[in-house]
Amino acid sequence: MKTSRFPAPLSGIVPPLVTPLTAPDSLHHQGLDNLLEHLISGSVSGVFLLGTCGEGPALPFKLQCELIERACSQVDDRVPVLVGVSSPSLEDSVGLAEHAADCGASAIVSTLPYYFASAEEHQAGHLVRLARRSPLPLVVYNMPSCVHQTISIRTLQRLADEPNIAGFKDSGGDMQRFRQYCDLAIARRPEWCRLVGPEHLLAEAIAAGGTGGVNGGANVCPSLFQSIYQAAMDEGAVALHRLQKQADVLGRLYGQPETIGSVILGLKMALGLLGICEHHTTELFAPPTNEQWKTTESVLAQLATWGLASV
Question: b/e map of 269-281 (b: 16 or more CB within 10 Å)?
Fold first, then answer.
């Protein structure tokens, strides 16, 4: 088992890696290698495996383990690798955390336990037990749209007492709550990473005390989101306005109405047209339509005029 090297705090852009597939239960090895090199060359600060964009909960356990092993080998300690281990089963989460540690990952990420509604103290207790048993630092993940529970300020206060918790990622979309999370972390655990998920909130999150973003669009254009992060850090309003317009164009990949499935499919279609990996998803999501392909081609053509994509 390798010793975790997790920066304190982790800052910058940490893309939630899509999982390249050739079939619902088959990893696209070359596509994974291509995607990781694409991201690292785009100056990302880390990669996050088996999150929402990575279709983590929908992948067979064997494929999850294979992905972790191959990704860690390809990254080869160049950037931190974070691994999603979210499960209602503590034993499954601990087992995946141990495998991630053996493969050389830097940290694990977990939502509150989902499916069964439970009291707040039991939800927090699950994360406390996971942190205490994990060989890697734990980043807690607020994802209420998927787990139908929100990490409360009281829960985060309790988690701040746990030395093996290394920060949070918030995809709730509530900036008031994000500011409260940041204020608590800065006061109690300034070494925590304070990451935001929704990419349109990246600049605002940095201004509120965030340390970076876990933004799906960075799979396609890592340098764009790295530039937004840097402009937000530098308080460069003019650059931010220009860069956000480019990010808004990229956001057309996600369709209307935007759903988790349409985001995943849009990202994979774009990566397919860029020749990075195949566009296949798990069987939970419908295959792309001709109209979606046309939209994806149009978006990439526009991004290419800014030097952000090359089909």
Answer: bbbbbbebbbbbb
Secondary structure of residue 31 in the 3-state scheme: helix
Within 104-221, residue ranges assigned H as helices are 120-133, 144-147, 153-159, 175-188, 202-207
Select from 184, 167, 171, 306 the least CA-distant residue to 245: 306
pLDDT tens digits, 88-97: 999 999 999 9
In angstroms, how far is CA 284 from the centroid of its own chain?
Answer: 20
Return the structure tokens found at 110: 């977990």
Residue 4 scores a pLDDT above 60: no
Q: Residue 213 corresponds to which tokens in the numbers above?
A: 């973003």
DSSP strand E in the chain: where? 12-13, 21-23, 26-27, 47-49, 81-84, 107-110, 138-142, 165-170, 193-196, 212-213
pTM summary value: 0.95
Exposed / middle / buried, residue 121 (Cβ in 10 Å: 0-12, 13-18, 19+): exposed
